[in-house]
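Review box. Two proteins, two foldings.
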Amino acid sequence: MKVELPAAFEDAPISDLVVLIADMLDRLMAHNDRIALSPQALTRFHSRSAPAISVIDYLRRITRFINVERSCLLVSLLYIDAICARHPLFTLSSLTCHRFLITAIAVASKCLCDSFCTNALYAKVGGISVTELNILEREFLHMIDWRLMCTREILSEYYTNLVRTNASGKYAIADDHSPMAVQPLRQPVPTQHVRPTIEQNMAFAAHQRGEG
């Protein structure tokens, strides 16, 4: 049975967004975990071993104990693409995903939201020390060159692609015939956007399932 989601990502249940994002990240990690890790590719986001907690449970933990805006969850996907575009050796894998997610959400909340939590809370919920989160945050900002802003239109594209390429195929976006103006979260990023690596992975997954 299809689960019909609202056309606007702002109205989508957080629980469904978590499922969609976790599904996409799991597929991306499964692909990247097959790539041999070279010493040059190591970053501060790499852990010595994959965390025991799954990505979906990690995201559920974060959204349970922290009031995370939907835009912050979606923009973390854009951040993955932006950093991978700037640093081709970096991959989101089972060794990097968890640290990347908590850092991306913390940074996005501070950039896009009027209110946000302290690093002490982000670190506690994320299962790392405050010192480590501070280091990861600085590394993150350096890797992305402080390019954190995003338009609502871009986030809507990510949301639509998440729904359309979900592995279970049970999600669909409700028809919405009411015009909705595209408004920026703050200001548009004054640079051109490269089409996401994540979108390419989604298209590849759809092709494997015989949908494209």
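Next protein.
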Amino acid sequence: MTTPAKRSFAAKEEIESLKIVLLINNDAQARKIFLEKSLEKIEAGLVNINKSLKRKIVNHYKKWRWAPYTYRWPAYDLSYYLEIWSGIIRQKIDAGKELKRLLAEPEEIKNKKQAIVKKLKISSFDNHLFNIAADIIYLKSFRKDCWFHGCFAAENLYKEIGRRLGLSLNQVWMMGFWEIAPALRKKEFDPEVINQRIKFSVLYQKGEKGYIYSGQKAKNFLSKLILEKEKIIKVNELSGTGAYAGKIKGKVKIINLPEEMVKIEKGDIMVSHTTFPSLVPAMKKAAAIITDDGGITCHAAIVARELKTPCIVGTKIATKVLRDGDLVEVDADKGVVKKLNK
């Protein structure tokens, strides 16, 4: 009853993405190019695609590349979408059927809610409360996505600030907003102080005034606070959608960023919130792949089928309940992950 009937940004992107797949499939020249396994050949072949379709491809990339950005990089590059579309076409996934399912989903949710209201004789007042709860759940996700899009949109501004100050993007991110104007106008900033913040720092905001502590000062500041520890949900089994069949045991390695790929060894179980092309080297080493997000047409599912690696997507909570070193059994036939004793 609290499931939102409104489409999320992710659902809207997937619908638009599948429409592009249908356009590619209906264009003989484009389809031939996207049947290539090599991303380099697909990218090179884009010049031979009709201008209208090419424009739609590029516009989709520009419109949605912010999706995985969160607070700071990486955004998707064009190769992410080319790999997705190529995989759907080569693996003969019925894009039309999947598109039809996604388009019908909001109405199906509404119909199921109405059936429950009728069956349980839920009052109009209580039903109104359920609708409010559904709106709150939708807005929570919508608010986050708007925030993340804002962070992505601001990146070029941060890059320009960095260019003028001779700082990297990461260094600019470590500056307080109140420090930017003096740095630009009077060159009042210390790169070494900023570098210390990258290693370990705390931002403390009191009213309109902000304070940034680094190193030992940051540790001393934190030691005086009563922090609420994150409650790790104890889950021994989680489920999702099996994207490629297989059953295997292995140790978990959480990989969300390219710099984290050094952790993974051949035979490990790769667990990610989502995947993208720069994580493929880690995916090739993994004995199985598990993600929080995604369905049968997501990047992880596409690549897993190419690699013939057992894969479960859409678990929602894998990165929250699993930790590096956990021993798990992945049964992608059933879409189930079982946590075993270490």
